[in-house]
Amino acid sequence: MNLAELTVDAFAPLVGSTFVLRAADGEIQAELVGATPSPHPVPEGIRAPFTLTWIGPPEPRLQQGIHAVEHPRLAEPIELFLVPVGPPTDAPEYEAQLA
After folding, report:
1. Euclidean distance between CA atoms 59 and 46, whole angstroms
2. Which long-range contacts (CB under 8 A, 24 or more apart) does 5-8 make?
3. pLDDT for 56
4. Which of 8, 19, 31, 72 has its CA 20 to 30 A from that of 97?
5. Tens digit of each residue's pLDDT (9 = 90 or more) over 13-30
């Protein structure tokens, strides 16, 4: 699937399901907890920006960077820039912003 073709509507039905987030040094299973469209209007013909949020296990923690994101309902893994957000907790959050 082409990253430029992805929209929030492709991910909204997957909220609550488990994804595999892969990095060069390992992988985790994380639950998609949010697929949020941008509140700002965009011109017609331009994909509306959106944010994806996952909650992962306490360990291992992923570092900020490009990670392969996999889900059975996606045709193929997609590479997204993931950022750990918030203070360290027992349930770290990871966020990807797609513009």
Report:
1. 38
2. 6/47, 6/78, 6/98, 7/47, 7/48, 7/50, 8/35, 8/36, 8/37, 8/48, 8/50
3. 95
4. 72
5. 999 999 999 988 789 999
Residue 37: count of CB within 10 angstroms of its CB: 14
Direct distance between the N- and C-terminal alpha carbons of the chain, in angstroms, rounded to an integer? 16
Strand, helix or coil for residue 20: strand
Residues β-bridged to residue 81: 66
What is d(CA 35, CA 43) in angstroms, rounded to the nearest whole number? 21
Cα separation values, 29 from 16, 89, 98, Å:
12, 16, 21
